[in-house]
Structure formats: C-alpha cells, structure tokens
Amino acid sequence: MFIEQPPLLYRLFFPGAYWREKVEGKKTIYLTFDDGPIPDITPWVLDLLDKYNIKATFFCVGDNVRKYPDIYNMVLDRGHRVGNHTFNHVQGIRKFSKRYLENTKLASEYIESELFRPPHGHMRIPQFFTLRKYYKIIMWDVVTRDYSKRQTPEKVFQNVKRYTRDGSIIVFHDSLKAEKNMKYALPRSIEWLKEQGYTFELL
Ligand SMILES: [Zn+2]
Fold this sequence. Notes:
about 200 residues, alpha/beta, six-stranded parallel β-sheet, two-stranded parallel sheet, 8 helices, globular, binds zinc ion
C-alpha cells in the first residue's frame, strides 16, 4: 500500500508539492495521465474523457511531444491541461542534478506549462528545491499501478476504489505498458467516482 498511497513521511520530504487538494464544499478528485502523448493510446483516453465531459491533466514526456505534435495538440484542443514530465522520462535519483534540470528544461521547449511531475515520483532534494522555484510540483495521492504487469485490470480498478478520498490526485498512464489495465480500469473508475459524488477538477 505504500506504493498506491504515498505515506505522510515521504510527502514531508517535498514541502509545497501537491498530493491532495481539497476544495471547500465539494468532493473533488483530479485525474492525471503520465508518459504520453502517443498515437496508440492517448486519443482513446481523450475520447473517453469527452464522453463524460471530464477534463484531466496530462504529464507529457517531451520526446513524445516532439515525435507526435498532433497528438499533443489534440490534448490541448480538447481542453485538457499539460505538465512537464522531463524530456526522456529520467529518474532524478539516477541523474546528477545538472543533467536532470537540463532534461526538464529541454522538455519545456516542447511543453508550455507551470506544472511538473517527476518520473517515478522521486528526485533528489536539491532537484526538488530548484524545480519548485519554477513549477508547481504535482505528486499524487493514488497511483493506480496500471503500468504494472503484476497487477490485474480488476486489481487496478480496486486500487482506485480502495484509496481514493476527497481531494485525491489520481495517476493513470497513457502508455503501451499500461494499456490493458488502464483500458479496463479507467471507464469503470470514472463511473464509480461519479456514483460516489466526486467532481473532476483540473490542477
Ligand atoms: Zn512517468
């Protein structure tokens, strides 16, 4: 469960980052999609969101935006928000800070946004404090684990039902790795979240 819902202690390492955002007077959640945009998956997600008239935030990999500008523009044209997810999906912890920040800067040439989400949810503390000067750092309250081969589609849907609470920022992936789990769990999760009375907000 430490993966699906990051513990408080972990959150304290990144002061000022966004994990969960409650809104006075309504039950709110935020759908986010990482690792796109790609032609095989992202349009499918966009059509589904349109069907429910839901807006979401897409944390894009800069190199995908470079390769598929039409898909990227489709995300924007449909009224969604985008965020920076580095250019090559680099892990902060494995990179020296200078290279990590350069990779993020390169992505910013393709993705115009004040939002940043670190790939794999971690980065070195100095990287965090530098990026925080330029970006709202968006982490999450629930990661569905749709990307994991060890999860069944049903289990991914259960993760949403088990861990979502008022203000949750929820992570799905518009990636090939997540395709099977996401395509099963996302529509069911949307239906379930609506039944629970959640409204879908943008970050
Ligand atoms: Zn990612």
